[in-house]
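Q: Here's a chain of 148 amino acids. Please give me its 3D structure as tokens.
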Amino acid sequence: MGATAILRRDHQILRAELRLLEAMMQVAPEASSAVGEMCGSLAEMLDEHVRRETSALKPYARTRANTLTRDPAARGHADQRVMLRDVEALLCSGSNVSVSGVAPSLAHLSQELQEQMVYEEQTVFPLVDQIAGDVRDAEAERTMVVLG
């Protein structure tokens, strides 16, 4: 499985978790600690995804992919992870913070994360796949020359 295929799978899982979080907030708005724990779980998933993403994209750091991954229009996952951890702490602390009190922030975070994933899938990943294919083609040509 190629590097971007793994990252795309991560995106599918993250989207499913976001849908589950949104459903939980609607169905059980009084379940603050459960929503908080879900935010913590989502933050951990995002941490793992960022580690895989960093590792997968590192070989292309000196290529055009580096320019795209640093595009200011594309928001990084760092702020999203911090926000999820903050919401988890608020909702699991036993304070009087309600799910409805953090729902607008979580909705914004969800939208931002969705937009980031779409950006990566439509802009960064195709470029990385193209570069990886070019590298494989060049290696195959070198092998043929050596064997030929």
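Q: Can you summarize the key feature?
A: The helical segments are 3-27, 32-57, 64-69, 78-92, 99-147.
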